[in-house]
Every structure is written in structure tokens, then in C-alpha cells.
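User: Hi! I'm working on a homework problem where we have to compare a predicted structure to a textbook description. Could you give me the structure for the chain below?
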Amino acid sequence: MLSGCEGEWISSSLSNLEELQIVGPDVQCIGTTSIYSLENETDGRIEWEIENPASGLILGFPDGNSVEIKWKNPGTTRLNAAFCGLTAAIDIDIVEPEDPVVSDQLVCQSETAIFETVNQYSEYKWYREGTLVCETPICNLGKGNYLLVVRDSLGCIGKNRFELEEVSIPPFQIFNLDPAGI
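Assistant: Happy to help. Predicted C-alpha cells:
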């Protein structure tokens, strides 16, 4: 029992938290890292859980109100948060990046041809033997080994390695089979 002790008054405002809401992206690519947080400010420990643990890995807690997750496998999962007897959830689709398909073209000997992807992306990088040669959807390419790296609207990165070989056209002659030579 304490007697004769005096201390300063502590003033704290109390508010009634009625519901929780998770804020963050609901579609993510495999390999990306996302931060999710509660819409309401909280003061205390939040319990975060990924319902399907194979979908992602909790990397840490950037602040007391959020969680950082790296997504590992495709599919749909749910992220749950619990605080003071209240819960919140968000469904998240984890998608695989799409590898770009390059339009089929032949490259004639010592010439170039125009190449493009079958689908549209938000970012393109065409590399020839390690050197960036083009950053547009349509590129003029010649013989060589290429890597095409694209980014879609979700930020998913797709890659395609391909080789363009020259096609030589055999020499030809024009014969006139008309005996009159006309």
C-alpha cells in the first residue's frame, strides 16, 4: 500500500472504435511486396494473419498500424487483422506475370524488321545481347539474341528471350520461255 505519494495527473482522450478497415491493394503479382494498414489509427498490438500462409510471407511491421507482405504463390487469399476484439479482412488475388509474346517476323539477310508484342503493356525494354535497344511497344530489330522485359498495369514483370536469325533468299533468275523472245 502506497501512502503519501503524489504524482502528476495524466490526461488521455478515449474514443470508441467500432469497426476496422484494411487499406491496401487487392490484386498483386507474385514476388511483389505490399504494405497494408488499418484505416483507423490504433494504439496497441494488431494481430495480422494470412489465411493461406503459402500465399505470402509477413516481412515486418513498418509502424504500429501496418504490415509488409511479400506475395509468393498465385491464387486468392484473405488477410485478417484483429485489434481489441474487432476484426477486419481483405481478399487479395495474387497473379502470375504474363510472359510477352512477340509477333512472328522473318529477318532478311542484312536487314531489320518491325517487331511488337501480341498484348499491350505499360512499359517495354528490349535488350540485344545485354544492351538496351528500345523502350517502345514497336521496335525495329535485326539479327541477334534478345530479351524483352515488360511491366503490366499491376506492376507484374514478364520476360521473353528470343533469337532472330537471318533468312537468306536464294538467288533467282528470270527466264523467258517465249520462243519469240517477247
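For your comparison, note the following. The two ends are 127 Å apart (CA to CA). The CA atoms of residues 101 and 118 lie 6 Å apart. Good luck with the assignment!
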